[in-house]
Write a structure and sequence with these properties.
By secondary structure, the chain is mainly beta. 11% of the residues lie in helices and 40% in strands. It has a four-stranded antiparallel beta sheet with strand order 5-4-3-35, with no helix packed on it. It has a four-stranded antiparallel beta sheet with strand order 6-7-8-9. It has a four-stranded antiparallel beta sheet with strand order 10-11-12-13. The longest helix is centred in the first third of the chain and has 20 residues.
Length: 504
Amino acid sequence: MYQFDTNFTSIPVSRGSCRIVMFALIDLLLEREDCKGPGYSSPLEAFKNGAREKLLYVVCVQPDLTKQDYLATVDVDPESPTYSQVIHRTYTGSVGDELHHSGWNVCSSCHDNPELKRNLLILPALHSAKIFAVDVGTNPRKPELHKVIDGAEMKSFNCAYPHTAHCLATGDIMISTMGDKNGNGKGDFVLVDAKTLKVKGTWTKGDKIAKFGYDFWYQPYYDVMIASEWGSPKSFTCGFRPEDIPNRDLYGVSLNVYKWSTRELQQVIDLGDEGCGPLEIRFLHDPKASQGFVGCAVEANIFRFYKASDDTWKAQKVIDIPAKTVKKDGEEFKLNGLMSDILLSLDDKYLYTSCWLHGDVRQYDVTDPEHPKLTGRIVLGGRVVNDDLTVIEDKEFQEMTQKPVYVKNKRLYGSPQMIQLSLDGKRLYVSSSLYSPWDKQIYPKMTEKGGWIVKLDVDIENGGLKLDPDFLIDFGCEPNGPVLPHEMRYPGGDCTSDIWLAKD
């Protein structure tokens, strides 16, 4: 006779039945793993074992302010008969909202709680301060509007212009805000109860409030959260005004460092002029990493931030994309890249970024975070080709002329903006809209013709990007006219929505 311990009791079994019991125990262990909460246990588990994406949830902004924004559901399953098509639209039910970014009711930070389900996509509206909760769990291919939190709730705490939404392990949803209810710059955060969907109040404690707000990422292992800055809503909502950039009361240049456990702003890192407009911020996915990157829009630079030996946080510029000298109608001027998005692959090997004015998407190997190496690049648009500019000097490349890009016989007007990477790192989706007031000003033809999403195939071994000629989502053919696609999400989480917590 043999004894086989199941962690519940010791059961005597015969030699003949031992094999059956072993398989039963394997099934039990698998069942226990299946009972885990949302997301994945670690970023590497998601990278190695995550399912291939079959749907994209895309925020779509209607440039015609008499019509509604919506969440588009896009089929990205190559085996599906509706591959690379919009298969459903979930409208907000109101106008003038300006949907922008999105997040989840719960994510991988809640993986150890089997009672929680990732079933609501949270859509803060930048202009109206409303928060739309969309049910994607009941029917993932046909999401329905679950609840609308009126903008008055957020504004009652003197917060408005919401941006990034992250779920917390506490069961709350945390949303960064960029201004007060009057449109002045103010960096704060509101908390929403993930069950009741009521705005509970602000997250920040203490007397210090950040001058501006934008994105944030928390790393509880080091008891820290770091937030970035755009600027004053009174400026950026009126369009891209270069004359406002030097004014430090209108554009931010800092990273704001908070003590996570006390919610207090403890340190402000001034990045200087080269760090103007620090937008998307990403810690390395490793939950014990003490460093990350932030993309600084105006000068198209990337800074690495890190914990120093004296326990303060510091930043250093590690990527500098130089301005191009261009000419139009006999006038020469400098064209900066305007870096608008960055993300990291789940194995922390590659960093991807887009430059909205230069029109390229780049891949950097950041295995050595202090010395990133450019390993892939592709041009999909930008001002040079959209505005018929003549390049006089390019300090990086010998690209004195650029040609329009066509996919499936459709010209891509505008430029690459938001990016989203597959869990395995092999596919990079790219959308074209930055923010509708800026879209209308910088790329009016894209606004008229509609935005787009394309797919880049990624070489994850040696580096490299290649445009898929057979994939295009054309948002110029939508039922209520052309729309502008911005952020993209997968139903099961992705590289920019999920934050992992250290296990010890």
